[in-house]
């Protein structure tokens, strides 16, 4: 089953805390997950200041610079993994180095049947 591990942290303090992971540690962990055969995709995101939010309301497109909402933590990146169950996905998420200074939300991916009926 696919799980999305969303990595959240306060990007202003991400690299300044004593337990902050170095990029090399993050890359090494991603390579370990990939080596285990569980990695489907992983990416770090640019700063939240580069975000653009899109909304469609009453047929009109609204585009706003910045993130969707003001929050204490921002979405910093993600891992899309294949795990046998939630417990295995939680173990992978717990090993993500940024979990020490932020949080990792683990959500099952809903499989959509896109084949024509």
UniProtKB/TrEMBL annotation:
It comes from the Bacteria. Signal peptide: none annotated. Residues 1-112 form the YCII-related domain. Coiled coil: none annotated. Pfam families: YCII (PF03795). PANTHER family: BLL7171 PROTEIN (PTHR35174:SF3), BLL7171 PROTEIN-RELATED (PTHR35174). Belongs to the YciI family. This is Uncharacterized conserved protein.
